[in-house]
Amino acid sequence: MHRRIFLFLLLTFITLLGAGCSGSKSTANNDATDKENPFKGETLNVLSWEGYQEDDWVKPFEKKYGVKINVTYAGSVDEMFAKVASGSVTFDIIFMDGGSVPRYQKMDMIQPIDMEKLKNSSNLIENLKALNDDHVILDGESYALPFTWASLPMMVNADEIKEPIDSWSALWDEKYAGKIVTLDDSSNQVAMTALLLGISDPYNLSDEELEKVKQKLIEQKPLVRSYYAGYEDGKNLMASGEGLIGYTMGPSMITDLQKQGMNIVEVIPKEGAIVWIDNAVIGKKVKNLDLVYTYLDYLISEDVQVQFVRKTGFGGVSSKAADMLTEEEKKMVHMDDPDYFKDLVYMAFPESFEKRVELWNEVKAAN
What we know:
Number of helices: 14
CATH superfamily of the largest domain: Periplasmic binding protein-like II
Strand content: 15-25%
Helix content: 40-55%
Largest sheet: 7 strands, mixed
Radius of gyration: 27 Å
Number of domains: 2
Mean pLDDT: 91
Low-confidence stretches: 1-17, 21-32
């Protein structure tokens, strides 16, 4: 009897001891995991344009770090600004065109970025970064990280227009009357026309210069087949033959038409063309800055940038990503030519959106 009690107590002790060791081991494992993954359970609030936060690259990051990327999309520059200014959501990262960065910085909505914390920043395309830095380094500090870009060139149907085109003035040439398609976009129309008129800074126009631009656009109006508002609308006008020459929303419009078998060529006019560079900026009130930097560095890594370029048709910012693309892919997004940026004019924040919208409405209403 005593022997049975002894054996029972011994077995109980061994079982409890094993459970205790197992629990200690489990706790140790959890502690190790937490140290390896300090961001587990965290959330990043990101305000972005459509297409920039796709599951292809967001989900792997969430899985690796055990975090949630909570994305809010904006449909316009004004909507984006309003969302940040309202303060209803504290955004950790905001994606915006570089021309908008000074506006946020002046209103103390964003904070400087320490490029030393982004190891992949050393792989940014040099000419692109230099052009961007001229507009996002403020008071001696960098406030934005380039993520993607595209130019706004001219498109020409080379089967129908044989003569060489090298100037925006072609969009005012009477020989193309009824075959000209151009953007229904106030600020970009004003900027392009300002370049044609020889104005060096198309985003800082005086009232007198704005009036000259308006008169030039009114002069063009009888020649225009259509002012198109959407990407597909512009492509369809060229694909149908209604348009033979036009002002594009980006090179991908041209490459899409080329894929359809059309001989559409891109022209960067001698007066220059607009380029937009979309950047990531860091919100003023961030809870986990280390996680923000980890995500930003991931987004400009060559692996993500290659996926992004192939999915969207926009230009990437990583020179290493360019090395991973095929020659055809690089050419399509102009990541094959480091000198491409020398004839491009940065899309900056204009002197007055309101004046440009009013000007454009007057152009469209003119007889």
